[in-house]
Structure formats: C-alpha cells, structure tokens
C-alpha cells in the first residue's frame, strides 16, 4: 500500500508545496488565537454571518485544491502521485462503508450528550465535550439555508484537504524528504492535526484519529477519491446532522424525577394513664414532675 507514490519534485514543485505548507500552518496558528475566535463569534452572531463564513471557506478550499493539483504541471510529479487515479472499486466501497459506519454512533453520542447537558445529569466526557463544542459551534448550521450551504462546504473542504494532506504532502514526504511512504503519511497526519488547532487539544486528537482513518482509506483503495467521499460524509455529519440532533434534543422537555410517594399515615400510640391523668382536673392541677428527686 502507498507503493505507487514515487514523485520527483523540481524546484517549482518544491517551492509551491512549501508555500502551501507554510500558509496552512500559519493560518491554523492564527485561527487558534482568542482574537480570531472572538471575530468568528461576532461574525456568526450577525444576520447571514454564518453563510458568509461558509462562502469564505468554499473560496479558500477551491484555491487550496487548485494549488495542490498545480504541482503536477511541474516536472517529476504526475496525477497518480497525488492519488488522482481510479480506485479499486470493491476496496473503495468496503472502506467507505467501514468508516462511514461510525457516523450513527457519533449521532447517538451527540444525543446522549445533549440530554445530559439539558437535564443537568452527570455523564462521562460532558465537560470535555462542552469545551470542544464551544470552539466549533460557529461552524454548526442552524437554519435550512445554512444546512444546504454546509453540505457544499463539506464537499469542498473534504476535496481540498484530502488533495493536500493525503495527496500532496505524502508525496512531498517521499519525493522531497526521502521518507518511507508510511512515515510521510504520519508526518502529513501530524500537520493535518495542527490544522485544527482552533478546536483545542481534544479536538486536535479527535481530528488526528479521524485523519488516520482517511489515510487508511487512501492506502486501502489506492486513490484519493475514497478519503474525499468519507471525509465529506464526516463533515456533513459534523456541520449538519450533529447540530440538528443537538437542537432537537434541546427543544424537548427535560426529564424530571418522579415525586417520592407520601408516607403512609401511622397510628399514634396512646399515652399510658397515670395517677395524675386518671384523677382528672377535679383532683387538682396537673404538674410536670422534675427529672431530679426533690
């Protein structure tokens, strides 16, 4: 697997690859700052702000994909080195089904998280999930128009990121750094994780693990198309389906504990008659005995 990658980068190809790498890392570092987070929150709080954010993501993804594919016009790099070749059909379907099968479990997890947060009940990982959710909430589609455009964003981002992180950067690790293909894949995977610094360290770990699944799909099928499709499914799930589940569960009434049954009435035992009580008030006033002898 990955043995088809054998590029020979010239100066132009190396320079373009380095430019994409530096630009991507710099953008990731900038996007992870508190100032950038505040700017995103202000943008999505304005009418149509999230739609403008989505359109910007589509433009950036298109430019990134074009820059990655442009490397093949330099000497020594062809389309196959970037994974732009026909996948093995059976392997592609198997890889897609195996990885996409994790989507339902993520929706179930989102529903459980939303219920625990709504009801105020303790649940494993709620605090960490809440922190990560706060960092990515600006991406979550909330309206029908946003959901439609979020699907387009998912496809564009999946195509550009897979062309860069599974296609170009693995090829660059082999052709420029002289690494084994799997070592180059792991190095590219690390850069892919850094690209998502804005999600916090928990988000970086989660994205890196998912990126490993994309890398395995790439190696298994021999083409970048398979991870593009699976990546798009994951992004639609993250941008559209999970936010919808969170909204739906949040609108439902919170569960309340059933009230405890009232205790059954019990008979009060009658006090035993004493000489003082039996005599009645006619025999004289009733006095309380002191606890100590007189």
TrEMBL record:
- Protein's recorded name: CPBP family intramembrane metalloprotease
Which keywords does this chain's UniProt record carry? Hydrolase, Membrane, Metalloprotease, Protease, Transmembrane, Transmembrane helix
Q: Which domain of life is it from?
A: Bacteria
Which residue numbers delimit the CAAX prenyl protease 2/Lysostaphin resistance protein A-like domain? Answer: 149-236
The opening ranks of the lineage are: Bacteria, Bacillati, Actinomycetota, Actinomycetes, Micromonosporales
Q: Which residues cross the membrane?
A: 12-32, 53-73, 93-114, 174-194, 201-220
The organism named in the record is Dactylosporangium aurantiacum
Q: Which InterPro entries match?
A: Rce1/LyrA-like_dom
What GO molecular functions are on record for this protein? endopeptidase activity; metallopeptidase activity
- GO BP: CAAX-box protein maturation
Q: Which Pfam families match?
A: Rce1-like
Answer whether the UniProt record assigns the keyword Hydrolase to this protein: yes
